[in-house]
Design a protein that fits this description.
Layout lengths: L7 H11 L4 H4 L4 E7 L18 H9 L1 E3 L2 E2 L5 H10 L27 H7 L3 E7 L19 H4 L3 E5 L10 E3 L2 E2 L9 E3 L29 E2 L2 E2 L3 E3 L11 H15 L5 E6 L20 H23 L6 E7 L42 E4 L7 E3 L3 E2 L3 H8 L14 H4 L9 E6 L2 E6 L2 E4 L19 E4 L15 H22 L1
Parallel strand pairs: 1-12, 1-13, 2-15, 3-16, 4-5, 4-12
Antiparallel strand pairs: 2-14, 5-6, 6-7, 8-11, 9-10, 13-14, 17-18, 18-19, 19-20
Helix pairs in contact: 7-8
């Protein structure tokens, strides 16, 4: 088959002409799948050269498509980066875009413009399966009724998700706004401030805990795992942690089969390798790195199952697959699972400094591959790209207006491997603190605060300037040696950030 040779304007026009057409026209439009992992590091996939871990199914996307060496999430934590992916907007512009609890209200404005809404406007069936962590409801969620607003109001025709992270309550699946398996005579209650006196918790009932907590995870005990937050009821609705990967793979396969004759957009939020790390028994011992390594092997299996189903349905040639992670990696993140002790020679960030929560590059520099069998020539790209650029780039692909009022940049040629003309600059965020990338340079302003477990947060006493072309690991602050470049970077960051705040005053 001839490789991708259609110009972007021609392709966009073709996509637009197909919108709203018959089934024959639908076949011309590529399906789009975004796979978003949870806390997967740049060095956690073997496609980037790691010899300590094997991810063959993920690698097949990297080696068969565009493998990006310079791709970023907007944020070093989950909720903000997911917000940016869905809205095409910097999360630091929304003061509520922080790590959310499981009972938080919907973060995205139901009337706002989103990636799934844009795809729906182009005639696509839209689905969200897996981790959500963008809030739902209006702030006082009744888990025993249909929860509105939620994924549907954001633009998804179908959804089956977990509300937040695997370590937070409620530990239930929510399908199209309804808790799966809920029962009227066992109502569900969730509280993040007060414990339920008749329910066990990790501090009062340590004998029920099978996975020890290292910090912060000492409230409700569900499936022997202490969580963040308290939960009561819904005994038959609670998930089994070890079965979660299989459960969501099944939902993905059903979605693909139900929509094989229509153009579809699928957001697949993998929960691995976020804590608590509970691989299915099939994957226990799959690596030498304990539960964290084993759930990465499980993650790779999930990708393989998706690819196999697309192949079986004869959809692989007509499906664009984006694989990436919501932020950088972390080892000890609240449970004693020996991720640090059993790491061996594995470099979770691939040599980058920092990790999840950090302003250093390891916090937001993530794995990123774009695969389209028969249409993308396998290549590597050093273009500076960001996940939030997918919105306007996919808009160009499917013939929808490219919005100039978003922070998302239209870079379809870059994502399809036809150009290296990526972003000029990018504002990055970690727990409310901002840093800046421009060209090969990284600027970290001074912030007060401590460091955090094994992750260096980047709380510097003075400005940090790093030349990533010569010092990828950010080992040396060269601000004093490059005063002109420092002032240029400070001015550029000030313009990028302050212009927004001046506009909203």
């Amino acid at each position: 088959m001839k490789k991708y040779a259609i110009s972007v304007p021609v392709l966009a026009a073709m996509m637009a002409s197909c919108a709203g057409g018959d089934k024959g026209d639908d076949a011309k439009r590529p399906n789009v799948i975004v796979i978003l992992c949870d806390d997967l590091g740049y060095g956690d996939v073997s496609a980037y050269g790691s010899k300590t871990i094997s991810t063959p199914n993920v690698d097949s996307l990297a080696h068969g498509g565009v493998c990006f060496n310079n791709a970023y999430a907007t944020s070093a934590t989950s909720t903000p980066s997911r917000y940016a992916l869905m809205t095409g907007m910097y999360p630091w512009k929304n003061e509520r875009a922080k790590i959310l609890n499981g009972d938080a209200p919907l973060l995205i404005d139901p009337d706002g413009y989103t990636l799934p809404k844009m795809m729906k406007n182009a005639g696509y069936v839209t689905g969200a399966i897996g981790k959500w962590h963008l809030g739902m409801g209006n702030g006082d969620v009744n888990w025993n009724e249909t929860i509105i607003p939620g994924a549907k109001e954001v633009g998804f025709d179908y959804s089956c998700v977990i509300a937040a992270t695997v370590d937070r309550v409620p530990t239930v699946y929510i399908e199209n706004g309804n808790v799966v398996g809920r029962e009227a005579d066992d109502p569900i209650y969730v509280d993040y401030n007060n414990k339920f006196d008749d329910e066990p918790n990790a501090l009062d009932n340590p004998e029920l805990v099978r996975m020890q907590w290292s910090c912060g995870h000492n409230q409700a005990v569900i499936n022997g795992i202490p969580r963040i937050g308290y939960m009561k009821g819904g005994k038959n609705a609670r998930w089994i942690d070890e079965d979660m990967a299989d459960y969501f793979v099944g939902k993905v396969k059903t979605f693909l089969n139900d929509n094989k004759d229509k153009p579809f957009f699928l957001y697949y939020g993998l929960h691995q390798p976020h804590v608590p790390r509970t691989p299915h028994q099939r994957f226990v011992g799959a690596t030498t790195m304990g539960p964290r390594g084993d759930v990465i092997a499980e993650l790779d299996w999930c990708v393989g199952e998706l690819m196999a189903e697309l192949r079986k349905l004869d959809l692989l040639d007509n499906t664009i697959i984006v694989f990436t992670s919501d932020n950088g990696p972390v080892l000890d993140d609240g449970y004693v699972d020996y991720a640090v002790e059993r790491l061996g020679n594995h470099q979770v960030t691939g040599g980058l400094r920092g990790g999840k929560y950090s302003l250093y590059d390891g916090g937001t520099h993530i794995p990123f591959f774009v695969y389209w069998k028969g249409h993308i020539e396998p290549t590597t790209s050093n273009a500076l790209v960001c996940q939030m650029d997918l919105l306007n780039s996919f808009a160009a692909l499917v013939g929808q207006p490219v919005r100039q009022d978003l922070d998302s940049k239209e870079m379809l040629d870059v994502f399809l491997g036809k150009s290296e003309n990526g972003r000029d600059e990018l504002v990055l965020e970690a727990a409310g603190r901002l840093c800046f990338r421009k060209g090969n340079w990284a600027l970290i302003p001074p912030y007060n605060g401590p460091e955090f477990r094994e992750t260096e947060l980047g709380n510097l006493k003075d400005f940090g300037l790093f030349d990533l072309s010569a010092d990828r690991g950010q080992t040396t602050n060269v601000a004093d040696q490059n005063p002109e470049k420092l002032e240029e970077m400070k001015l550029s960051m000030h313009e990028a950030v302050q212009n927004y705040y001046n506009a909203v005053k």
